[in-house]
Amino acid sequence: MRHWLVWLAEILLIFAGVFLLLFWNRLxxxxxxxxxxxxxxxxxxxxxxxxxxxxxxxxxGLANLVVSKQIYRQDIVVAVVIEGAxxxxxxxxxxxxxxxxxxxx
Length: 105
Description:
The chain has helices at residues 4-23, 47-72, 76-104; strands at residues 30-32, 44-46. With 105 residues, it is mainly α.
């Protein structure tokens, strides 16, 4: 029961993948993703790398869930912090993901 927010985040990542599939043909060959770099072409990545960030985000979220389950037996507070951090990272990723897709489409 306590993992439902992490699973909700994973379901939202799946939703983002379906959303990406729907708009795949409308995406340009390169998308802006690296906003910390100076303006121009240095911020662009190929759209296939943009798509591969979704499974990577899912893997990180699931790995954090596994780690928190292992730690939960020893320290409940640390396990909850790990789950909260995983949820926060997923929400931040999804905000950036949908921002990029909304700018382009």
